[in-house]
Amino acid sequence: MEAAVPAKIESVSGCLDRRRAGVLLHLTSLPGRAATGDMGAHARRFVDFLENAGFSVWQMLPTGPTQEDGSPYQSTSVHAGNPRLISLDTPILRGWLDPLPDTERGLSDAAKREALRRTWEGFRARASREDRQALDRFVTEQASWLDDYALFMALRAEQGADGWWTWPAPLRDRKLKALRQARSRLATLIGYLRFEQFLFFHEWGELKRYANDRGVKLFGDMPIFVAHDSAEVWAHRDLFDLDKRGMPRTVAGVPPDYFSETGQRWGNPLYDWERMREDGFALWVARLSTQLRLFDLLRVDHFRGFEAYWEIPGEDDHAINGRWVPAPGDELFDQLHEKFDPLPLVAEDLGIITPEVDALRRRYRLPGMKILQFAFGGDPENPYLPHNHSRNSVVYTGTHDNDTTLGWYLHLDEKTRQHVDEFLGRSAERMPWPMIRCALASRSMLAILPMQDILALDGNHRMNTPGTATGNWSWRFSWEQLPQGLIAELYRRIHMYGRLVAA
């Protein structure tokens, strides 16, 4: 393969083939009767909303199984899907689950888990030959990750959801005899967990086809680091910087920044990049293979970590004492280009971005991100100001980590608010519409609007506040929040700014 060379500023990635507009809304934020949104009827209705309003991209957060805090960025697997996102509509329609009585209309997580277990019983009793064969094919084709995941989750349940490093040593250290006994002892639960993933991927495939048939691309999110309490870290300890007990010697995070004066200690174990080189970065190739089965386009979270990452001593409870350590981004992306070319990736290049990080992104023609809420510090050279955007970028009013645009605007000091108003032309429209117009007018090939901004919601509706452990990831909208005429108005604006794409 020829050595990659830096791309010109105006060179546009193949994944941004034309001007488009999209909406940022995680699946859990959809309406519905369960504790979170799912892949059922409301997801299809949302696709219809996107199509009718002129949007051609649906961006969401990571879709892996979440842990107790609900964060999609700390998943128990980099391959598996979150069972909470499974809709019960499909098993009811296929006859694997009896229709739910009215008393179960408001489904708690516990009630939904029980319904999914009844679905497994119904599948074993009533599934067609074709459906059984489809399950067998799925289990065989995905065995490289599914076997470890199902065993890990079964053991985790048996151990009371305790971290794998606290399990009895033979299980913690994956001794063959202990694993063989566990597979026998937990065979029923392992079979169910495999079926659960089969159902997730089946429903996802149906939703993706529905969206793609209507001209809507699915835009996913892939965290750079892997959760400590995950199937991959347990199964591939040699690829991470862990001690003999499975505890991280060093962990990931970021230094003090816009979001936190003390930085952020994420707690993810860091990679042993030297060991990853030896097998051609196989874990990353496998991760991308799974995610590109689910999504048409992927945001790579914390892209700057591929050039250098913030290494924090594992025993520290904050991020201040970390240090920057070089990472083999060039080698990794060369390898990924050999397997996936072009790479349909967007680099989350926010935070402390050095010329070296920017050069790495440009070398592989990856679009970067432009956040309008970061633009108004008074410096005309601010890279987030619209006149400084490159075509090879994705512009956002704000992201899931920001306040809503209305909430952000209301909390600005008077001087900054006047600067924003003047820059946006002292629009007669109420915020956030001047910022939405600014994003749509940007030179960036893709403009993404959070659903909260489309609904003009204040800061009470934000998705996540970085550095906080509670009160996040639970926001949902209702269809009643869409004002009459909104779809037509969005369509008119998207057409006005050349972002309408024919299906």
What's the quick description here?
The protein is of the alpha/beta class and 503 residues long. The protein contains 18 helices and twelve strands.
Written account of the structure:
This protein has about 500 residues and is α/β, with parallel strands linked by helices. The chain folds into three domains: about 15-65 and about 365-503, TIM Barrel (Alpha-Beta Barrel); about 80-215, no CATH class; about 220-285 and about 300-345 and about 360-365, no CATH class. Helices cover about 40% and strands about 10% of the residues. The strands form two sheets. The chain has an eight-stranded parallel sheet with strand order 9-6-3-2-1-12-11-10. It has a four-stranded antiparallel sheet with strand order 5-4-7-8, with no helix packed on it. Helix 4 packs across helix 5 and helix 5 (about 145-160) crosses helix 8. The longest helix is centred in the middle third of the chain and has 27 residues, at about 185-215. It is globular and about 70 Å long. It starts with 19 loop residues before the first strand and ends in a 7-residue tail after the last helix. Residues about 1-10 have low confidence and may be disordered.
